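Entry 14. Structure prediction run on the chain below.
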Amino acid sequence: MEERIYRVGIVGFGGMAGWHYELIQTIEGLEVAGIYDIREERCTYARSQGIHVYDGLEALLADERVDFVLVATPNDVHKSIAIQAMEAGKAVVCEKPVTLSSQDLQEMMDVSERTGRFLTVHQNRRWDEDFLTMCRILEEGKLGEVYRVESRVHGSRGIPGDWRKEKEHGGGMVLDWGVHLLDQVMYLMGGHKLRQVYATLTHVTNQLVDDGFTAELTFDNGQIFLVEVGTSNFISLPRWYILGQNGTAVIQDWDKNGKLVWAMGKDEEDVVPVKTAAGLTKTMAPRREDTIYTEPLPIVTSDIRDFYRNVMAVLEGKEEPRITMPQVMRVMRLMEAVFQSAQTHQAVVFSPCGL
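Output returned:
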């Protein structure tokens, strides 16, 4: 029996679309039918790589060979292209953020329901191995009841010098990186309601859009997540910092350097005070070595190609979507709350049911 080949048409052929193109070459049963970009230089480049280039968006959508469309344009035109594609009978994979507001997202979801066409978002950071390793740490429970998790991404180059620094195109770090980190948290906490968010934005290198933010999320079980993105940090803090009643874990970076340190249950006696310049402290003295245990991280590996494998399986009716639109809507509403909190300098409280 001949294997079914799914063909994707790519709209927008910038850096991220190039990453998609290279990835698709490694996935059995999937190939690129062609691309379209409004920039002639990107079309010229695609042709130089032997990639078919459509004369326009309409030509791509009219191609019966195209099973689904990848929308990889600037954020502000995701909605219009996705709707046009679904109206043309195509399934849609949209780059993140799916659009710029919950109202726009609801319109996209309504079109998906009306046309019966599959719509999903490329929330690829759910496959990040540092995130999956953090999830494993929580599952194993060695730290005891976890009461705080800190998730950070730091850089020192500011916002890239393209549309990501322009408000009208959906620029800024909340929409660029926040959508990833907040999606990771909300996915992990899928069984719990978000009660409150308090956020601040930074404008160190850009006054038009946020070039960083900090958001503290409080869930109905009392667990707190601190999510932070910075683009003017010349010394980066750890990617993950996990605090439990019986121990602490740190994941330093995407390479998954880090460790777990947790209590072994022995009594802490005869603590030797720490001498500081201004006096003694027992409270901040280190634990005795015989009362703690240190071990390496429980590394989890992943395969990002599983995203597209799931898309194909959904189109075949064999699997449910790994990334659902209600999940995407939840994150969109959270990002709106982040902006609201930063603007009003007040916490946004979700009541009575939570987010």
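The longest helix spans residues 325-344.
Filed with the rest of this week's runs.
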